[in-house]
Amino acid sequence: MRTQIDDSASEKNHLAMLKLIDWALRLCSVPFSVATIWITVTNKEDNSSYGMVKYNDLSGLKYMVLVSALCACYALAAAASSWLKFLVSKAWIFFLSDQIIAYLTITSVAAVTEIYYLVYHGAKEDSWSEACSSYGMFCSKVKLAIILHVITFFCFFVLSVISAFRAFIVFDPPINSQEV
């Protein structure tokens, strides 16, 4: 009897700690998303030979800004609502929305990384020359924005694992057919 009470108290402590980690990761992802937006939107460089390049010249960067804004808004709303009793019992809502945000974030990371690779290395077989030698500051800021966005992705990756755990913990483990 005593061990069941201790196990129950220990499980509640673990779930409370998990909830705190969940909340902290949500809040931690907000500054990374906002910094990604700010660095990307203010990124521009003028070159006397080739002209001005801005973030909105590249559709992948616009997509990253959109996803970062969505991440920041969702993280704030989810962090605030994670402490509301009637929503905490709806673990599936957090599970599905965390999965969607994680997938959107990784797609925007992939899109911008591809653009960065092309801008940095070029594609000679497609007649694309590299541009980072002419727009070094622009490329450096894009690289920093990608790094911040990857950190945001890792926050949401861990959040999606936590929300999956919280959604599926209510079910019993599968029964081995040999035990039946």
Automatic annotation (TrEMBL):
It is found in: Cell membrane. Residues 18-155 form the Casparian strip membrane protein domain. It is a multi-pass membrane protein. Keywords: Cell membrane, Membrane, Transmembrane, Transmembrane helix. GO terms for cellular component: plasma membrane. The keyword Signal does not apply. The keyword Nucleotide-binding does not apply. Pfam families: CASP_dom (PF04535). The chain crosses the membrane at residues 20-41, 61-88, 100-119, 144-169. InterPro entries: CASP/CASPL, CASP_dom. Homodimer and heterodimers. Belongs to the Casparian strip membrane proteins (CASP) family. This is CASP-like protein. The lineage of its organism: Eukaryota, Viridiplantae, Streptophyta, Embryophyta, Tracheophyta.
